[in-house]
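Field: COMPLEX_INPUT
Field: COMPONENT_COUNT = two
Field: RESIDUE_TOTAL = 635
Field: MODE = joint
Values follow.
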Amino acid sequence: MRQFFDSAIIALGALWANKLRSILTLIGMIIGVSTIIAIVSLINGMNQYVAAEIQTLGATTFTVDREGIITSEEEWWESRKRKKLTVEDYQAIDEVCVGCERVAARSITRRSAKYGNKYIDDVYIMGSTPEFPLIVDFEIENGHYPTAADYQHRRRVAFVGYDVIDNLFPGILHIGKEIRIAGQKYTVIGNGVRRGSTLGQSKDNYIIIPLSTFEKQFGDRRSVDLFVKAHTYETMDETQDEVRMVMRARHKLKYDDEDDFSITTAADIQNLWDNFSSGAFLVMIGISSISLIVGGIVIMNIMLVSVTERTREVGIRKAIGARRMNIMWQFLAESLTLSIVGGAIGIITGFLIGMALSHMSGIPLGVEVWSIIAGILVAGGVGTVFGVYPAMKAARLDPIEALRYE
Amino acid sequence: MLIQTRELWKTYTMGTEKVHALRGVTIDITKGEYVAIMGPSGSGKSTLMNMIGCLDTPSSGSYTLNDRSVANMNDDELAMIRNREIGFVFQTFNLLPRATALHNVELPLIYNGTPSETRLDMAKRALEMVDLGDRMGHRPNQLSGGQRQRVAVARALVNNPSLILADEPTGNLDSKTGVEIMGLFDRLHKAGNTIILVTHEHDVAKYADRILHIHDGQVSRDEDVRNAA
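Field: COMPLEX_OUTPUT
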């Protein structure tokens, strides 16, 4: 054991003495381990994000829209040919759907908003029916949402997110103030709590106005998105079928036509993400195993050089009584130390990469203890496997030949 | 009897030809003797030294060291015998370049599992015995040739071996330092150590009490020189 530590210390000393060579030697190992750490942390962070997103949508809520989840260009072009969803669709579902607890419609655009000489560009302007903020949770901090009366009378009232407050009303009370959205005057009637940002996008960058007002100002050519909340999780499927029947009837689809609209549940989003993340895991395993194999071969090469350089040393050690196992351990300890140092640097680099990516993309970083342990174990395993052959070669040297080596 | 060889043969196969490095060497050496093995290069003295030093095994014949037959031992058993019974001193010193004098001397003790405090004590005592008590932390490249060889002698001594086997110990030293080292061997002999010296120089061999002359793989003369010096 002591010999093992002695060898490890010698190996560390040699590593420190040849810093550039060490980095080059260990680069494969570092890439391999840092890939594991970075991707595991990001996927894990993304998992937390998706879980949180799904929770805000809720397990009993689903959306009906024209496009659905688009994963290819063809799907996008296909979706462009579909019929738009309209306020009438919303009204029809709201009237007949038994399984629906709440139904809402929302239309969306990005415009600028102004107050005095202050302005904010590219705010999401959501024209919505009164139930919308109750389905998709926009928790109220001050004031209230646009009401049914506001909707009926097409009043120009706005419920704003914190980005709007920060930009237009720094340090000023905002309730009751008049802002201009794309030139039209609106009265601020309330604001939501601060929701922060995910994936680098602010979740406070919104203004909710009545859908009727929205269509009056921006026209009714946009397809609206419908939000439906079922009474219970158990009746989700039935409720979806109900909504599907209404929509198919309204679009006059024959029994063998496909739906020309799309119903998306939280579970669908989860499935999509699961597929993506398992793909990312495969890519990670691919990249890291290739780099680890390359890293292992480089370590083996360095160890073979080290054995050759130190043939005489092996001869001396054997002459004064080192057994094969002693020599074997000495060189194994060295390759193990090399690889574990590589693994440790890889873990640190992995975190730095993960942090940088997380900073750029807004994906939260979810550090996993098991990925650190796995990184160290994998590195140590590679060092051992690729260290065995050079170590055996050293252990089997003939002491007489080795002593004669110049 | 410390060393007893009977009809030692060592044969190497070079291509199709068989080369006999040793052709039936029979010698007896008792405890406390100071013996020089002399012979020109190619005489087989190095092979004989490797055999006596348990670095190699004979093709045929028997070798008993301290009542133990070593002719048929495997690698690891030989390593243990070398560790306990033999202290080597080489022409080129053969110290570990990156290790301090103390660590070099300590090394044989590491391989027989001596606990570390005892080990340090023993190594320090061995270095003091060769008058290097003040150079323990120095690395070989910080020491002179004579000092290096004295570190090597300390390493050979540290384990209290039955036998000190020195292969041309003065070959890489100037004559003055060589005389010093030979004086050190004299001291060790007087203290009761058994010493075998392998050399081709008569001036060095004459320090011993007995000279075994090797020619063509055989002992050609067994000379008692106790009173010659």
